[in-house]
Amino acid sequence: MLVAALTTGSCTPHPKAVYQPDGTVMPLRAGYWAGPMGTNRIDFHVEQVMADRVAIRISGSKLDPNARNEPGDPVTFSDRPTTCRINPDNTSFDCLRYKGMHIDNGFLCGTYGLYGKTYRPCLAPVRNP
């Protein structure tokens, strides 16, 4: 019976490690992060990190599967690729609406402000296909 219990226990899947932002600031790097922000899902690509700027591309979509395109409020959206200034701390960058964007334990975190609302997203890393 002891052998059966040990064998059964070894077949039990190990829980996946769960990680989250924890204040561990990491160096800026190229990558792809995504996650919810308000009523949208944001796809945030840092395409290149240069000496004083980062090249980014942002797109997204409504989280509500029943959402309809409305004037000024599309179901999907895409910003033009742009570059953003790296801050003097050399671990964060600022864009037009995204401020203090930094990598925290693998997550891309910062502050986003638009139309009087402020969000503090921490977008999860996504593996490129």
Please tell me about this protein's structure.
This protein has 129 residues and is mainly β. The protein has one domain. The protein is 8% helix and 48% strand. It has one helix at 2-11; strands at residues 25-26, 31-37, 40-49, 53-62, 76-78, 82-86, 92-94, 98-104, 107-114, 117-119, 122-125. The longest helix is centred in the first third of the chain and has 10 residues, at 2-11. It is globular and about 40 Å long. The model is unreliable at 1-10 (pLDDT under 50).
Which descriptors would you attach to this protein?
mainly beta, disordered N terminus, 48% strand, 129 residues
Secondary-structure topology with pairs:
Blueprint: H1 2-11, E1 25-26, E2 31-37, E3 40-49, E4 53-62, E5 76-78, E6 82-86, E7 92-94, E8 98-104, E9 107-114, E10 117-119, E11 122-125
Q: How would you describe the shape?
A: globular
Largest sheet: number of strands, sense, barrel closure: 8 strands, antiparallel, barrel
Q: Cα-atom Rg, whole angstroms?
A: 19 Å
Secondary structural class: mainly beta
What's the average pLDDT?
A: 87
Number of helices: 1
- How much β-strand is present in the residues? over 45%
Gap from first CA to last CA? 45 Å
Number of domains: 1
Count of individual beta strands: 11
Low-confidence stretches: 1-10
Helix fraction? Answer: under 10%
Order of helices and strands: HEEEEEEEEEEE
Query: Largest sheet, order of strands side by side?
Result: 2-3-4-6-7-8-9-11
